[in-house]
Structures are given as structure tokens and as C-alpha cells.
Amino acid sequence: MKTIIDRIVRDDVLHAKWLNTLSFMENAGARKISACEDRFKTDIMQLKHAAEEHRHACYLKKQLYKLDVAGFQYYAADTLLASNHTQHYLHALDIQACRYLKKQFQLDGNALKHAAYLFVTYAIEVRADELYPIYQEALTKHHSKVMVKSIILEEEGHLEEMITSLKEFDEQWEVHAAAILALEKELFQHWFSAIAFEIEKAYGHIAEVAS
User: Fold this and answer.
1) CA torsion 125→182→167→126, rounded to 10°?
2) What torsion, rounded to 10 degrees, do the Cα atoms 146, 152, 158, 161 define?
């Protein structure tokens, strides 16, 4: 992962696609959180998470202005890395998590949505806790004007909040969280492998142009 992200940061177009991809996923996460809200029983933590994920999406979009690129106003397929995987990653995780939780807890309706919010958000925060520091390390290494340190701090806070909520949800939360993490890991591996394939192709082209 470090090698691929390092290559991304070294090329402005690839870097822009990476930023736009992360922004898309943060926005998709915010929309998922909002979709899980109960009409009357949504608490301040869930509202804060949705707001902060939207803000992360906006922040990442603004970082694009620090690169020498154009044409990234929207989330068009050709402005994302591994576009197909990116567009379906979170939705697929949500569906798989709901199937698991419905079977384990016999939940449906708003109760199932809430459980999915807790476990899926936890899995995404665990992933963010790994991914963003690696990205920031590459940014620092290459003296990039782009920064994601503020996102790292907020994602760490989100993770702590999700753990607290999961402990309240079920005493055996770690067993079920491990199952959801396994689902996320498989989806992430497919997603990042698709990104790596695109980067390798792009780097071959970049090398040819440079020579």
C-alpha cells in the first residue's frame, strides 16, 4: 500500500484522482449515515458523524486546488481511481453487514439500520485509521502542500465513539465487529488491487512519456 500511495503522490493527475476518490467515499459515508437516521431518535453523535464526513469530503475537494490539475469539479467516473469498485465499495459493505446482523440479531427496519450504522462505521474508521496516516506519511515525504492531518485526528475520535456505542449495543460486540471487519477487508483488498492495477498501468505510460 505504501508503494502505491507513494507513486500516487508523485504525479499530480493520479494524486488528483486519489483525492477525488477519497472525497467521493467520504461523501458516500456521510450519505449512508444520514440514510440510517431514525426520524425521531437520531442523537448528536450520529448528526456529528454525518456532518464531519461531509466536511471531510469538502476538505479533500479543496485540496485539489493545491495541485496543477483541472476538471475535478464532480465525481465523474474518469476522475476517480478504480471507479467501479469505488462506487460500490461502501454499498456492498452495507448490504453484507445488514445480512450478517439480521441473521445474528433478528433485526429489521430502523433497528437494523442503526446496527449497520454502528458496525459499518466502526469498520470504516478502523480502515481510515490505517489508510490516512500512510497517505500523510507520503505527503510529508514529498513535501506536498496537501495535508490530511486534521482528518486523521477526527477519524480517531470517531473510532473511539463507535467503540463506546458498540459496547452499549452488545456485550459480545467484538465478535460481531471482527466478522464485519473481515467483510470490509475483502472488499478493501479488491478495491485497492484495482487501484494498484491502474497506477501500474499509468506509471508505465508516464515512464514511456518521460523517456
Assistant:
1) -20
2) -160
pLDDT at 10 over 50: yes
* Residue 75 three-state SS: coil
- CA atoms of 37 and 75, how far apart (whole Å): 25
Residue 151 to residue 44: CA distance in whole angstroms: 19
Distance of CA 19 to the CA centre of its chain: 11
Average pLDDT over the chain, rounded to an integer: 94
The whole-number pLDDT of residue 207 equals 43
Residue (of 160, 132, 159) closest to 146 by Cα position? 132
Task: Please give the backbone phi and psi of residue 106, each rounded to the nearest 5 degrees, phi first.
Answer: 55, 50
Cα 57 from Cα 51, distance rounded (Å): 10
